Amino acid sequence: MERVADLTVNNLASQLEDTSTKPGQDQINSRIFMTSFPGKVTVYLGKRDFIDHLEEVDPIDGVIVVENEYLKGRKVFGQIITTYRYGREEDEVMGVKFSKEMIVDRGQIVPSTNEKPELTVIQEKLLKKLGPNAYPFTFHFPSGAPSSVTLQPGDEDTGKPLGVEHAIKTFVGDSIDEKGHKRSSVALAIKKLQYAPPSRGRRLPSSLVSKGFTFSQGKINLEVTLDREIYYHGEKVAATIVVNNTSRKSVKNIKCYVVQHCEVTMVNSQFSRYVASLETREGCPVTPGAAFTKTFYLVPLASSNKDRRGIALDGHLKDDDVNLASSTLIGEGKCPSEAMGIVISYSLRVKLSCGTLGGELQTDVPFKLMNPDPLLADKDKTNALKKSKSIDRARYENSCYATDDDDNIVFEDFARLRLNEPDE
Amino acid sequence: MELVEFINATGPRFMAQRFIEEQHMLGWNIPPEHADLVHIHWRNYPAPDNVWHFVMAAVYFILMLLSTSGNGIVIYLFMTTKSLKTPSNLFIFNQALLDLCMMVNMPMLVVNSFYQRVIGWETGCDIYGLFGSISGFGSAMNNAVIAYDRYRTIAFPIDGRLSMGKAFILMCFVWFWALPFSLSPMKSVDLFGKYVPEGFLTTCSFDYLTDDDHTRYFVATIFVWAYVIPLLLIVFFYVQLLGHVRGHERMLKEQAKKMNVKSLVGNQDKEKSAEIRIAKVAILIFCLFLISWTPYATIALTGCFGNRNVITPMFGMLPAVAAKIVSCIDPWIYAINHPRFRAELAKRCPCLITDEKSSSDAQSTGTHATAATEETVS
């Protein structure tokens, strides 16, 4: 089976090489993701990451190739499936199932129900290359659909990781309500992500707290200020700490943490994990009457939290780079409690230890940790934003999956996503 | 006239007379030095026929084989499979241990049945009673602990699982729960209660017939300790568990509705009845507990506080048999229908689980295999 798949890829690749050498072609470098049911059904997608811009989510645009002889008058249907997995498979006792699949969008692809579909650049290109048996399709995530998030499994965990996943599945059949037959269904994992908004915000998040003591006068004041509201993954979080001690106690040490808060809405549970931390005695003890100011730097990284169970990561497909889950953005006018799936937020926590009797003084400063929109990173391109077609074009140019050779389309075979179906 | 004589000679009265002449009363074969063992109540009944002893021995022999193989498999799989050594499975392993404890009594009964009395007199009776009680009290509490563990895992799937350390402490707790009132009736300890032969005088259990306050307190205590408390805990945890499952389902439906979802995959058939499916399993476990211990509770309470004339030797034997049958069923309910245990067993000796493949094939989608196996139980 696998071998056949390889052949298909090679054939296509060679076909494409022929066409790509023709002069006068668009010089757009793009990587195409494909998966196939060998020789019969092949799905092509221009990208796997679909970005939620809050007002709208990137449409899931692609092309499917089916042999007419194979179809024999049957139809091809597509579905976008969102899977919630909120408990380990090995814990499924008493007939409980900790995963739920939802078809968030679906439709008929072949024969096309839409006479004149609006095609995206990539669809046009693919249709041109793949010939008469290619059909375009476009699906949409509903507004507020949860982002792809994976909870990092622990050492002993087997089975699929917990989190929110999305996939596009196509199947051949006679009716849309039919359960796709294993033999004819093809599924590809895709991701829905959020990028940081264009403006990183001018407000510097800060928090001011103070602590008094029962049997003595005076207070310890703590002020924590961050240098940004939104950080990009991999950036240093700079926290300026100002301690002002007017009490008779002294501050023994200072602890800083980056806390990842993870709310699993499906089971109404939330938990927090430290993803970066430091402890220092610098400037300590802060004696009565003294003051202390210092900026500390913390870098929250997925790589420094490997193998820790329950750390939330951005949804990722096998070989991708992994980063910590991005903060969940909620559309304007929506209440945070309406957020779905797994909701992520971050805060910087500072703890001052005032000795065994003095207790602790603690404060949290919320911030956001996200990926920048690669499109907006380059200001020249922002002008092109107005036209939707140019958005796509720019995105492909920008995604810069530059390859050494001059092929303008590189096909990548995704391993066929197995839908829990045993191989026959 | 002749006819009347004939009827008299062969009729019921004659037969009854013959019966009494040949039949000993219960306890006839107990020598005077051990006469204290047998409560006067049992002496009112004729000794059961040899056939009955033989039937009991045969039943127990079969139960012994079932229990040893079932529980043995569970213990063997748990001990030898690394992936099965999870905190939750520790309780299932513990259940198998406790059930094996019960099994220890079975060969003793088979021997007792041939002698038609308890071998080893007081000591034999103490040993028999000790194993039975440890196993009984222990598995009652272990059932409650399993309910608690399942409640934690299912109600809080993300972070509810017990750690191995905590599970081990709970397992010890089960054994400590079982010990005090199992040891106290022993002759050598003789603190609270007493082990005596019951029914056919071939099995032993705590004394519920002696007409004094001491016995009544003891029966009341163990009734609460080994029946009421575990039962309440089991009901509490499974009810809570169902409440949480319902909450999860509602939450998911709400989110699906917000997203305008056209169809929840599989929602049509199996998924929809998740609550019902879990409820079925919970009720099954609850019923097994009832079957296992209600006969003992009833008979002990009747013996103590009610009309003891209803407690015939035959009736007296029933609770012991019920408890032992359940101890043979337990491994099937908890382990062999557990998807992971099942898979491991199928891997090791495929001959034992031949129906596995066909049943999961019938379910067609591998995803629902878990559901399928549990469903066959209920």
UniProtKB/TrEMBL annotation, chain A:
Segments forming domain Arrestin C-terminal-like: 216-374
Entry superkingdom: Eukaryota
UniProt keyword annotations, A-Z: Sensory transduction
Single GO cellular component term: cytoplasm
BP GO annotations: G protein-coupled receptor internalization; negative regulation of phospholipase C-activating phototransduction signaling pathway; photoreceptor cell maintenance; sensory perception of smell; signal transduction
Pfam families documented for this protein: Arrestin_C (PF02752), Arrestin_N (PF00339)
GO MF entries: G protein-coupled receptor binding
Family recorded in the similarity comment: Belongs to the arrestin family.
PANTHER family assigned to the protein according to its UniProt record, in alphabetical order: ARRESTIN, PHOSRESTIN-1
Protein name per Swiss-Prot or TrEMBL: Arrestin homolog
Species whose genome carries this gene: Diaphorina citri
TrEMBL record, chain B:
Region ranges (Disordered): 357-378
Biased amino acid composition, Low complexity: 369-378
Stretches assigned to the G-protein coupled receptors family 1 profile domain: 70-334
GO MF annotation list: G protein-coupled receptor activity; photoreceptor activity
Keywords recorded for this protein, A-Z: Chromophore, Disulfide bond, G-protein coupled receptor, Glycoprotein, Membrane, Photoreceptor protein, Receptor, Retinal protein, Sensory transduction, Transducer, Transmembrane, Transmembrane helix, Vision
Parts forming coiled coils: none
Membrane topology annotation: Multi-pass membrane protein
Similarity comment: family membership: Belongs to the G-protein coupled receptor 1 family.
Protein name listed in UniProt: BW
